[in-house]
C-alpha cells in the first residue's frame, strides 16, 4: 500500500517560497511593501526557506524573531489577509496535505499575532509634551 507523504521536503519548501513570492509580487497591494523591504531576493528566499524548514521539518537553520522585522514595515491589516490567501493557495498546491495544514496553521497564527501586536494599540510616537492648563 502506497501512503502519501505527510511531511514536506526541502525541495518542496523551496518551491513553496518561490511560488509564493511570484504571486505576492504580482499583487498590487503586496508588491510595493516587498519591493521596499527586500534588497536581496536570494538572501530573503533562503531566510524564509530556513524559517519554514524549522517549522515543518524541525531543523535548526532559522534563528530569529520575524515579528520585530515585520512590525517596522508599513503594513495594514488587509495585507495579512491577502498574504494568507496567497500562502494557503500555494501551500496546498506544493506541499503534502498534512504539511500544508501545518504550514497554514502556523501562518494563520503568525498573522493573527502580528496583527494583534501591530494594530491593537496606537503606535508609540515618543513622549508628548502637554501644555499646562495653568
Automatic annotation (TrEMBL):
Q: Which GO terms describe its molecular function?
A: heme binding; metal ion binding; oxygen binding
Q: Where does heme bind?
A: 44
Which InterPro entries does the record associate with it?
Globin-like_sf (IPR009050), Globin/Proto (IPR012292), Hemoglobin_trunc (IPR001486)
Q: Which CDD domains match?
A: TrHb3_P
Top-level taxon of the source organism: Bacteria
Q: What Pfam families does its record include?
A: Bac_globin
Keywords of the record, alphabetical order, are: Heme, Iron, Metal-binding, Transport
| Protein name in UniProt | Globin family protein
Species source reads Methylococcus geothermalis
Amino acid at each position: 500500500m502506497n501512503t502519501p507523504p505527510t511531511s514536506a521536503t526541502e525541495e518542496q519548501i523551496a518551491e513553496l517560497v518561490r511560488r509564493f513570492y511570484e504571486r505576492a509580487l504580482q499583487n498590487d497591494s503586496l508588491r510595493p511593501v516587498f519591493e521596499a523591504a527586500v534588497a536581496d531576493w536570494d538572501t530573503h528566499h533562503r531566510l524564509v526557506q530556513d524559517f519554514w524548514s524549522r517549522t515543518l521539518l524541525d531543523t535548526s537553520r532559522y534563528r530569529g524573531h520575524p515579528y520585530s522585522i515585520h512590525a517596522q514595515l508599513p503594513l495594514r491589516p488587509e495585507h495579512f489577509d491577502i498574504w494568507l490567501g496567497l500562502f494557503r493557495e500555494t501551500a496546498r498546491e506544493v506541499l503534502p496535505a498534512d504539511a500544508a495544514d501545518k504550514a497554514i496553521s502556523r501562518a494563520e497564527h503568525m498573522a493573527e499575532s502580528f496583527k494583534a501586536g501591530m494594530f491593537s494599540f496606537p503606535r508609540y510616537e515618543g513622549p508628548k509634551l502637554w501644555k499646562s492648563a495653568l
